[in-house]
Write a structure and sequence with these properties.
- By secondary structure, the protein is of the alpha/beta class.
- The chain is built from 8 helices and 9 strands.
- β2 and β3 form a beta hairpin.
- The protein starts with 34 loop residues before the first helix and ends in a 5-residue tail after the last helix.
């Protein structure tokens, strides 16, 4: 049932009074004082809450999965890169789902670090490379991106290359792995045609109340891509990246899979890096109304009732500690609440400090185009909801401090 939503609030003076749950105080009131206590007493209970009440549990293990390199060119992009296209097969209950990884690795660099991220409309949209396979999966229509009849065609090749500065990554010695998220689970309120359906019991048509929504399914897909990347001897480590809804998925993937060396959240907003209790911009009620398939069904009880949540999104960020984490916002992206993302990073930093890692100090302020590059990093750039060269310049500079 869709609930009537109040007008979105963009006025700081109208934010309700709220307290930020202390990540270092357990649900039973125990004070956490060191990283060992955190690991043994606190981290698991936070993780289990997010898993059961927000993103939803993965219901079972796969029966099997497979990888096959279906195309390779060691002299791609004018000789700059090795290109691989890898078909991944997932099997459960006699049902199969397939998706493709597009992988570029820089020539002349052994054991390169790699950025792994989902794209919104197909691997062929991130580059003008004519050899990249066009996705056959359901695709959201977009006049601007030349996608109609829910099908990608040659007309949409390279239409999102502006968000993926592949040459810059390669020149700096980084690789890129990307997957079209719609091949994992089409982004529509229909649980019949994606990853979820592999796991259904007979006559089941949607996940159970505390089982995974689409964000958790997309996070699961990132981990299955990692299964391949983790065994490619030309790759040293993998940093998972996501923008907007896919930033939410990247954060949950980082929280659920410790193999990711670092995590980048770009404008992930509500249900991602932004504090929910501020009720600024997009709220839990609005996101559950607009995208009822993204989260677990159990999350809907917090729609328009953020004050009843015993956690907030800064505690999602703490689940990634002590691994490097970058949270990024844009000053004009009020829907995603840039200040709420900054505050979330600040409040998560006390867990990083348990490990002797630096984060965002409570005395820091979110200045536009002034990155704070610590183990837990943050920037708020000029402009709108997007991924820009400025963002990637910061991510690459930051990654160079830990990924070599």
């Amino acid at each position: 049932m869709l609930l009537a939503q109040p007008e979105a609030n963009y006025d700081e003076t109208k934010i309700p009074k709220f307290s930020v749950p202390d990540p270092l105080t357990s649900f039973s009131g125990l004070t956490i004082t060191d990283s060992l206590q955190w690991e043994e007493k606190r981290k698991l209970e936070i993780f289990q809450f997010f898993e059961k009440q927000i993103y939803g549990k993965v219901p079972a293990l796969l029966d099997e999965y497979s990888f096959k390199v279906i195309e390779q060119d060691n002299n791609a992009l004018g000789g700059k890169a090795q290109r691989k296209q890898i078909a991944v097969g997932l099997k459960k209950n006699g049902r199969t789902l397939n998706f493709n990884i597009l992988l570029y690795l820089p020539n002349g660099h052994e054991n390169a670090p790699v950025f792994l991220g989902y794209n919104f409309h197909g691997n062929h949209t991130v580059t003008n490379d004519p050899n990249v396979i066009i996705t056959e999966a359901w695709n959201a229509n977009s006049t601007d991106l030349k996608i109609s009849n829910n099908k990608a065609t040659e007309a949409s090749r390279g239409v999102r290359a502006n968000r993926w500065p592949i040459d810059k990554m390669l020149d700096k010695g980084y690789g890129l792995a990307t997957v079209y998220y719609g091949e994992i689970d089409p982004d529509k309120n229909d649980f019949s045609d994606g990853l979820h359906s592999l796991f259904y019991d007979e006559e089941q048509t949607k996940p159970k109340t505390n089982e995974w929504g689409s964000i958790a399914a997309w996070a699961f897909g990132l981990s299955r891509a990692m299964d391949y990347l983790d065994n490619d001897t030309n790759i040293s480590n993998v940093i998972v990246f996501g923008h907007s809804r896919l930033g939410k998925a990247a954060l949950w993937a980082g929280a659920t899979d410790p193999r990711f060396t670092g995590v980048i959240s770009n404008n992930s907003g509500c249900g991602g890096a932004a504090l929910s209790k501020r009720k600024f911009g997009e709220t839990i009620g609005r996101i559950n109304n607009s995208f009822p398939h993204w989260f677990s069904e159990s999350f809907k009880k917090y729609s328009n009732r953020e004050e009843t949540l015993p956690v907030d999104q800064h505690q999602l960020l703490t689940l990634i500690a002590p691994r490097p984490l970058y949270v990024a916002s844009a000053i004009e992206d009020e829907w995603a609440d840039p200040k709420g993302e900054f505050l979330s990073a600040q409040h998560a930093s006390k867990v990083y400090e348990l490990y002797g890692k630096k984060g965002i100090s409570l005395t820091d302020v979110h200045e536009v185009d002034r990155p704070i590059q610590q183990t837990l990093a943050y920037h708020m750039r000029s402009g709108k909801h997007d991924v820009t060269d400025y963002d990637w310049d910061q991510y690459i500079t930051w990654a160079e401090t830990f990924s070599r």
